[in-house]
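re the bet — no i am not wrong, look at it urself. input seq straight from the record:
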Amino acid sequence: MNNKLKEIILIIDDIRYGNYKRRILATDNGKLSEIIYKINEIVYTYDEKIMDFSKKEKSNNQLLTNFSHDIRTPLTSIIGYIDAIKKELRYKNYDDCKEIINYIDIVREKSYHLKEYLDNIFDWFKLNSDEYNLNLECLEITELSREIIKNWILIFEEKDISFDIEIEEKEIKCNIDKDAYSRILNNIIQNAVEHSKTKKIYISIREESKNLIINIKDEGIGISKDNLVHIFDRLYKCNQDRNDKGSGLGLFITKELVEKMNGSINVESSLNKGSNFKIEFKNIRFI
């Protein structure tokens, strides 16, 4: 009896760690047989549900991939045309085009928000399914950061946000995924621009004790202590108003990507004084 119990415990442990094909053999009609049959029945039912779930998940993944491509590709083209039209109109008499430009600005802003929302949902799904594959390379960070940040300068000017950007002059190499790094910076800057109501943004990228330190700071409305502990939670929004912009996924995705590249991210904030997001990557190299 004791040997049989030990065998059952070992098999149950094996099942618990993912081997759902294991079954317990009942060698007789003794006291344990009925229990063994019940355990096998539970494992069989669970295995069937796992297989069914796996098939549905695969189908859902394919559906989302197709949906993302079918929606995001034309949306990107629409945004490109809107930007081109706006640029062309600025060369004409502004008074004659003022109303049209205002309408175009609204369409442009809504289109960018929709694209951001779709990008966040798609990335969240890939992260949640452990399908977000990173291509880690030893890349030069300072010039890459300048390329990312310069795309925000026009937006800062349009929204009347002053900015102070400090990036090390020396070249710094770090083992990162280029797209993920771009997404991290863009998400945090986007968060400051859209939600903090700040009129000034500070961005610094520097080396400190052989670590890469990135600070993105604003002088906006800040984050309360109650909200601060949840700021990186999935689907969490400080403002629960349904009309509030954003999916509640941006900072969650940011933290996931930072940690996937063996970095860390923290935030300090005070109400009416602003927030400071600090990202740190270790083991960097210098040229």
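see?? Residues 137-286 form a domain with the Heat Shock Protein 90 fold (CATH 3.30.565.10). told u. also The chain has a mean pLDDT of 79. so pay up
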